[in-house]
């Protein structure tokens, strides 16, 4: 076992938003300054003490994009081994509730179809987020078919018995 395996790094949770609108997804480019300069990411940020993941995400999206979102499905987390810490991305699918986006931190944003997303220069941990998102989308496409094939629900689950 490596010594580094014995030293537990602090875990930094980072809820991030896969914001969907009209079949497109918002990708945001980090600024030229700070960590991962000019890399593409899903907007979000570090969880603060006493906050839930969803509260954090709603706050971060307000701060970074000046919009409101409704938070929907939580996708699997992905981890990034960083210097002195483990970054844990916690992605949520979100829908936009308000329209006008004002960027306060990011260099720029793109609205892209899921097919177009992989072409960007993503932060490393986001590659796994993308993969999980694509699996989620595939599940969404399968579910309506399953619904069609499902036999009609029984109005009377087993035997209706005697109706008074
Ligand atoms: N919001 C967000 N952060 C990400 C993503 N991928 C990824 O590795 N990160 C990392 O997770 C951390 C999020 O912190 P933050 O949004 O508060 O950004 P920051 O530049 O202030 O953080 P830092 O200076 O501590 O690195 C950053 O280190 C960022 O590089 C992502 O998709 N979205």
From TrEMBL:
What top-level class of enzyme does the UniProt entry assign? hydrolase
Sorted alphabetically, which keywords does the UniProt record give?
DNA damage, DNA repair, DNA replication, Hydrolase, Magnesium, Metal-binding, Mutator protein
Which CDD domains does this one have?
NUDIX_MutT_NudA_like
Please give the Gene Ontology molecular function terms for this protein. Answer: 8-oxo-7,8-dihydrodeoxyguanosine triphosphate pyrophosphatase activity; 8-oxo-7,8-dihydroguanosine triphosphate pyrophosphatase activity; 8-oxo-dGDP phosphatase activity; 8-oxo-GDP phosphatase activity; metal ion binding
**What are the residue boundaries of the Nudix hydrolase domain, all occurrences included?**
10-134
Q: Check the UniProt entry and state the signal peptide residues, or none.
A: none
The yes or no answer to whether the keyword Metal-binding is present is yes
Cofactor(s) recorded in Swiss-Prot or TrEMBL: Mg(2+)
> According to its UniProt record, which reaction does this protein catalyse?
8-oxo-GTP + H2O = 8-oxo-GMP + diphosphate + H(+); 8-oxo-dGTP + H2O = 8-oxo-dGMP + diphosphate + H(+)
Q: Which domain of life is it from?
A: Bacteria
Q: What is this protein called?
A: 8-oxo-dGTP diphosphatase
| Organism name | Salmonirosea aquatica
Q: What is the lineage of its organism?
A: Bacteria, Pseudomonadati, Bacteroidota, Cytophagia, Cytophagales
